[in-house]
Every structure is written in structure tokens, then in C-alpha cells.
Specification:
Shape: elongated
Number of strands: 7
Strand order of the largest sheet: 5-4-6-3-7
Strand content: 25-35%
Helix content: 25-40%
């Protein structure tokens, strides 16, 4: 097993554990010294992973988020209104998806979580750099939206309904794990 493979396996073990994972247990599992584990954890952190050392072992923390997929329909003129409404309520627009009759499922990552990002996105659209993906399916499209709570997603759903954009909403049984002691 290479060091990179071991670090991936270490992250998997820490992420999937419901309690802190001790360095000694990791050392036994991967048949390396405790010092190698400490070095691996330092490299894992350097890659941007949020691994915390506690007196009982290592834990992975991630913000608690829930997500929902919204099927929506609106014109290009309403695009900014839709995106600003979502981010103003605390949502993050993860992607845009369409189901094309010939090409099938097409998805593009957006990761829009602020008005500034909406402005940048809209500037790219207005400048002619590209056109909205929804245009290939007569303005019907989907967004996966993440938020800190179901209540926020409910508010976003209500807003989309009030603005007559919402066709349907689908629960996504997806939560990022958050460890609390």
C-alpha cells in the first residue's frame, strides 16, 4: 500500500466512524508506526480536510448540511431572481441539471452561495460567454440546493412556489456527517 492509498484509507476510516479513531488503532490497522500516522494526518490536513485531534483520537468534522432537488421552470429574465432568492435564504445552488430527450441527463456544477457569485454568473450569461442550460429543455431544469437545515430548504421551496418557478421538490437523503462530543 502506498502512502497516498493509506491516507485515503485513513480518511475513509475517520469519516465513517461514529467515534474518535485513535492513532494507535490506525497504526495497528495499517501496520505502521504511530509517528507515520501523525505525519499522514498532517498531510491529510494540508490537503484541506478538516481532521481534528482530540484526547480520544481523530475526528472528521464537516458542516451539517441537507439538500433537496427542485424542479423549476422560468424564463431567462427570471434567472437572477431565482438564484438570488435561493442564496438570500441561505441556500447554496450546487448544480443545474436537465433531462434532454436525446442527450439524456446533463448536469453542470454551479456552487453559487452568494449574491456576488450570482452577479458573476449572470455577467457570464449576459456577455454571451454561454447560455443557460435550461434553454435546451424549454426552460425546465433542476437544481440541487444545500442548506444548513430542512427549515431553510422549506423556506426556499415556499419562495420558489410563490414566484411560480417550482414544479416539484424531491428530498435528497443526504447529510454530511458532523461529529459532536
Amino acid at each position: 500500500m502506498t502512502g497516498s492509498e493509506r491516507r485515503t484509507a485513513i480518511m475513509d476510516q475517520i469519516k465513517n466512524s461514529d467515534r474518535p479513531v485513535s492513532g494507535s488503532a490506525l497504526a495497528r490497522t495499517f501496520q505502521v508506526s504511530r509517528q507515520v500516522i501523525v505525519q499522514d494526518i498532517a498531510l491529510i490536513r494540508a490537503e484541506g480536510n478538516d481532521v481534528i485531534s482530540t484526547n480520544r483520537g481523530y475526528i472528521f468534522t464537516a458542516p451539517h448540511t441537507v439538500s433537496r432537488i427542485f424542479k423549476v421552470h422560468h424564463t431567462d429574465a427570471d434567472l437572477e431572481n431565482e438564484l438570488c432568492g435561493i442564496v438570500d435564504l441561505g441556500g447554496k445552488v450546487i448544480n443545474v441539471m436537465v433531462n434532454h430527450r436525446v442527450y439524456g441527463h446533463i448536469e453542470a456544477e454551479l456552487n453559487i452561495s452568494s449574491r456576488r457569485q450570482v452577479e458573476n454568473f449572470m455577467e457570464d450569461i449576459r456577455s454571451g460567454k454561454s447560455s443557460p442550460l435550461k434553454n435546451i429543455t424549454s426552460d425546465y431544469h433542476y437544481h440541487k440546493v444545500e442548506a444548513e437545515s430542512e427549515e431553510i430548504l422549506d423556506m426556499i421551496q415556499d419562495m420558489l412556489k410563490r414566484r411560480r418557478f417550482l414544479i416539484e421538490a424531491t428530498e435528497v437523503r443526504y447529510k454530511k456527517k458532523r461529529y459532536t462530543e
